[in-house]
Amino acid sequence: xxxxxxxxxxxxxxxxxxxxxxxxxxxxxxxxxxxxxxxxxxxxxxxxxxxxxxxxxxxxxxxxxxxxxxxxxxxxxxxxxxxxxxxxxxxxxxxxxxxxxxxxxxxxxxxxxxxxxxxxxxxxxxxxxxxxxxxxxxxxxxxxxxxxxxxxxxxxxxxxxxxxxxxxxxxxxxxxxxxxxxxxxxxxxxxxxxxxxxxxxxxxxxxxxxxxxxxxxxxxxxxxxxxxxxxxxxxxxxxxxxxxxxxxxxxxxxxxxxxxxxxxxxxxxxxxxxxxxxxxxxxxxxxxxxxxxxxxxxxxxxxxxxxxxxxxxxxxxxxxxxxxxxxxxxxxxxxxxxxxxxxxxxxxxxxxxxxxxxxxxxxxxxxxxxxxxxxxxxxxxxxxxxxxxxxxxxxxxxxxxxxxxxxxxxxxxxxxxxxxxxxxxxxxx
Amino acid sequence: xxxxxxxxxxxxxxxxxxxxxxxxxxxxxxxxxxxxxxxxxxxxxxxxxxxxxxxxxxxxxxxxxxxxxxxxxxxxxxxxxxxxxxxxxxxxxxxxxxxxxxxxxxxxxxxxxxxxxxxxxxxxxxxxxxxxxxxxxxxxxxxxxxxxxxxxxxxxxxxxxxxxxxxxxxxxxxxxxxxxxxxxxxxxxxxxxxxxxxxxxxxxxxxxxxxxxxxxxxxxxxxxxxxxxxxxxxxxxxxxxxxxxxxxxxxxxxxxxxxxxxxxxxxxxxxxxxxxxxxxxxxxxxxxxxxxxxxxxxxxxxxxxxxxxxxxxxxxxxxxxxxxxxxxxxxxxxxxxxxxxxxxxxxxxxxxxxxxxxxxxxxxxxxxxxxxxxxxxxxxxxxxxxxxxxxxxxxxxxxxxxxxxxxxxxxxxxxxxxxxxxxxxx
Lengths: 429, 426
Known about the structure:
The structure holds 2 protein chains of 2 kinds.
Chain A: E1 12-15, E2 21-26, E3 32-39, H1 53-60, H2 72-79, E4 82-88, E5 93-100, H3 104-117, H4 122-141, H5 144-156, H6 170-175, H7 178-188, E6 194-200, H8 204-215, E7 238-244, E8 250-256, H9 264-276, H10 282-290, E9 294-301, E10 309-316, H11 322-339, H12 343-359, H13 364-378, H14 387-392, H15 396-406, E11 413-419
Parallel strand pairs in A: 2-6, 7-11
Antiparallel strand pairs in A: 1-2, 3-5, 3-6, 4-5, 8-10, 8-11, 9-10
Helix pairs in contact in A: 1-4, 3-8, 9-12, 9-15, 10-11, 11-15
Chain B: E1 12-16, E2 22-27, E3 33-40, H1 54-60, H2 71-79, E4 86-89, E5 94-101, H3 105-117, H4 123-140, H5 144-157, H6 171-174, H7 179-189, E6 196-201, H8 205-216, E7 242-247, E8 253-261, H9 270-282, H10 287-294, E9 302-308, E10 313-322, H11 326-343, H12 347-360, H13 368-380, H14 386-389, H15 391-396, H16 400-403, E11 416-421
Parallel strand pairs in B: 2-6, 7-11
Antiparallel strand pairs in B: 1-2, 3-5, 3-6, 4-5, 8-10, 8-11, 9-10
């Protein structure tokens, strides 16, 4: 029997004539449910001058619609035993509600109403703009990981929208207007750009009828503008220095990799797990425990719609020369390219990824998120059912091939944080 | 408020072994995973005097070698299963846990017990761990929220209270940690009496218990006497507001914490305190989130929280804002908390808080890990399973008349503030 038995995932698939995709998975084990609304829009759909509008707009979605005025969305939801949140990435914006099963009719009404008739006014835009600027100060301007991440993206991408931060540049946040938001809403928040995923304690037939009644009348939007991808090939190593009064240096390295649908992404998932997951992972063991160069070593590779980044973050021990840590990192990546991973390491990585998939399916929210993410990133929720088998099929030769493709020296991008005084003209607003 | 039905726990068994160890087995169907969690009374509250951080240090070192294998061998043992060993040290306990695919349940239990009960504490590993801990403490100075959290704990409990220090300790005390400290701490705290082993899987509870007992038969527990019980002092209650300002010149944003005495988890006022906290700053539509984020756009994050330990707790307010609006944030927070202390929540706000808590409660019982933690903590904190089984109805029974008597309402009267700012606080 496969690890993920399809009979445990009786997902119902529907689509409305306006293009809205619906995925329903009933599970009466607890009296709760989760509704996700995935919109295929993120910072890759932005342009210079309005960077950060996807994320700012995510905030605006909680500020009132025709039927439910300002503050009403969360007030009604919480009063019915629910909670909501949302996130914006480079590629998608996802909204979700976790709630007592009894609240399903209200949740569908709230979500469909804001898709049909969001109200955007100047006052709420101004307040939300200030909230987002505080978020940017918290996550980026006063956070070492955040400032390095911003520097790395701007370094690794020259032409693709992945070069700007999801939260946006501060001057752009000040510039985004109500008209920009209205245009954005009309373009990207139409039902044909959305996948709705409902998981939990509900009757599928009744839920579907209610979804059809509430969402069916919302008109389909125009076809989405294409995202230009004129990213030229990288011809040599790129470096950036960030000066900040920190206790210790830090490094963030990035290599442009494949897009999420490319089978090589699965190989990079396994390299990520082998090098970075757990205390015994190769990179952590070498740099944190054996050579004592870092407080922490972290690897991140996420599937993106367009070719994204394989990132390695090193938080150095105070006093360590960044050049030593850098050399140790290149050596470890070089070993993967030269020798691959041995059988035991590769199997360990596969076990990690397999267990991670299962853990993600424990909760209603986790199942709904997985279903939606697979729809948006891979085209079908079914894609996760055979993922364990596809990972299992990856062998040492595939690891060597992909590592040689992704990690050669001319594809390196490195942002280094050096402790020091912040230049006087570099203090963020 | 429309009453929401109480939640039945999944099939489970609880037995106390002759050694004093409590065994908990829970059947969770649907996802083929197995979870095991060992809780021992070895929390940061047990740190010896002048050894703040020893509980965390001793627990972190468990993964750095046992009497049977070195650190690399331990990593292979655990991570070869695709699992991560989680080590969570709170004020009251150290908890080690593992989640693995169901077919690896016996291997996981063996690994967990070996790591927890047979540590080597090799001299060179202790020295390396000390260097890592000191580096990490220095790096934490770059995280404004970490600095604020450490200051808040000390301010809230007072330095003489067993809970009155950060779990990772202080640099000057971590520098003194040696192998003997770890061995002594482990020998006296990793004992079966007061410990709980939870196993969650897709088999019936009796089968899970059999597996646990079979594996436990292979291990030996420490037998040294536990030191004298801790002296849990009354929390300091000083009149007026004390302000602690930590100056971080490079920061463009100030972190603000306001702390006052709270309640232990076993308090008979638990349910009204939770409702009162939710209405004040627990949910997204609470009084403080509304005033600070939604109405004024002063901050991205605003919350109040009850940090409840076994013997006592704190009531905490957290937020941040750009340096220029710190005064406004302090003023609004104190004004709103003061008003709340006088009049409590409105009927609407109270009703919303009750339904919100009751509606979301089952989410905390969904995963293997959450089930093990919730049931274990209910048993160890002495509130019993009734606390979980009747949670929704007891939240629903909280009335306005009792809400004002509880901790969050007194925040403005007995607050101590820990803040961090770039400019002087007038």
